[in-house]
Specification:
The chain is mainly beta. It has helices at about 145-150, 155; strands spanning about 45-55, 65-70, 95-100, 105-110, 120-130, 135-140, 165-175, 175-180, 185. The N and C termini lie far apart (about 35 Å).
Length: about 200
């Protein structure tokens, strides 16, 4: 295993990366967000999202930080003004994971519901890594939501031959559904990223 060391002058810094993803650097304490968003009892279909992140040469990126932001199973985002007694009060919808030596990352969460204005169920993804000055933003859509995906105005704005880079494939595992979503920062299979 590669031993990662903190440095005060990262491309995205200055910050100490272990403050954002302490587990990635061997620290036992948890950061302000982790990769387990949904614990037992949170309503919705519990799923695992997993993948790997690659650079333009196809090599795994072992020090990326992937953040996700998503709605709950009813299509609502966490909000300070929401009734805390609501059924999803324990679900913040925000998670963060550092990539491992093989570029791997994963999240345990719930599948989000459809959001208003014709938006298909999706998860917002932000990637930060060495060598990029600004974060890269994309979305995860779900392969088993073909009808909703076909009507989604954001996904429809992406050239048809590139939409597959934003769609996670579903498989079944003993512990439950798994969605596979690899991120390619550059190259022939480059993931579609948005300007924000």
């Amino acid at each position: 295993m590669t031993t990662l060391k903190q440095t005060p002058s990262q491309t995205l810094g200055p910050f100490f990366a272990y403050g954002l993803t302490p587990e990635q650097y061997g620290y036992a304490h948890r950061g302000i967000a982790g990769n387990t968003l949904a614990v037992p009892g949170v309503p919705g279909e519990h799923v695992r999202i997993e993948g790997r992140i690659f650079d333009g040469a196809g090599a795994p990126i072992d020090d990326a930080m992937i953040e996700i932001w998503q709605a709950d199973t009813d299509g609502n985002y966490a909000d300070a003004d929401r009734d805390e007694a609501g059924s999803t009060a324990a679900f913040s919808g925000f998670g963060r994971c550092g990539s491992d030596d093989d570029g791997g990352f994963w999240f345990v969460t719930i599948k989000p519901g459809a959001i208003g204005d014709g938006l298909a169920p999706h998860i917002g993804v932000i990637v930060q890594a060495r060598g990029i000055l600004n974060h890269a933003f994309t979305r995860i859509y779900f392969a088993d939501e073909a009808d909703a995906n076909g009507a989604d105005p954001v996904l429809k704005s992406v050239p048809e031959n590139r939409r597959n880079t934003m769609i996670a494939a579903r498989s079944e595992a003993p512990a439950g559904p798994v969605y596979r979503f690899d991120i390619h920062m550059q190259g022939d299979d480059e993931t579609v990223f948005f300007d924000v």
